């Protein structure tokens, strides 16, 4: 992309540099998210970076923050897991770790960050955003950055994408990975049903979701389950007798 100039003093336009990372448990579709961020960034004239191993890659820097090009993400859509890795970062939970992460972004000229992860990952992103100005000020006072280095990066733009099979984010139709997880649950229940029918036995199937019952509800509807437990609607008193009646029918 050609650099632009203005009349009068020479001014160089700065390409925006956008980094993407995946954090927390992997969810189907994360590679599609990374691919989309990288290719759309390049399409819009920005430089794209991938942060490997989640927040730990931000803290460690070095080769874990890698410049990405269009062809680097070819074939990623159909791949499972997350090809740029995800790791639990104890160091990012500390202020010292976040200071190092901020420095690594500034020295690479990255001023925008896309985080794909669950509740903990996006909470960490919000904390990082809230502390950003104070982190830069502290880095300058420590001598880790000069005032000139820090000045262009007074604001860090962060986008959070919910990568969660639980579909536990309100005001959105679906979180990344929830439909793939539902599909797998239905496949597993269909296979278990054959054994249950063969032996005239009842089976209890527990699915993921934590405090959100979407996976359990949708899989129960899809597979024709006889009973459903979800945290949003705890069973009423006497449910044990009702369940026994249904099972014996």
TrEMBL record:
Phosphofructokinase domain: residues covered: 17-236
A Gene Ontology term for the protein's cellular component: 6-phosphofructokinase complex
SUPFAM superfamilies listed in its UniProt record: Phosphofructokinase
Keywords of this entry: ATP-binding, Cytoplasm, Glycolysis, Kinase, Magnesium, Metal-binding, Nucleotide-binding, Transferase
EC number: 2.7.1.11
Pfam families on file: PFK
Enzyme class: transferase
Main location: cytoplasm
Catalysis performed (reactions): beta-D-fructose 6-phosphate + ATP = beta-D-fructose 1,6-bisphosphate + ADP + H(+)
Subcellular location: Cytoplasm
GO BP terms: canonical glycolysis; fructose 1,6-bisphosphate metabolic process; fructose 6-phosphate metabolic process
An MF annotation (GO) of this entry: 6-phosphofructokinase activity
Cofactor(s) needed for function: Mg(2+)
Known pathway: Carbohydrate degradation; glycolysis; D-glyceraldehyde 3-phosphate and glycerone phosphate from D-glucose: step 3/4
The keyword Protease belongs to this UniProt entry's keyword annotation: no
Keyword Protein biosynthesis recorded: no
Protein name from the UniProt record: 6-phosphofructokinase
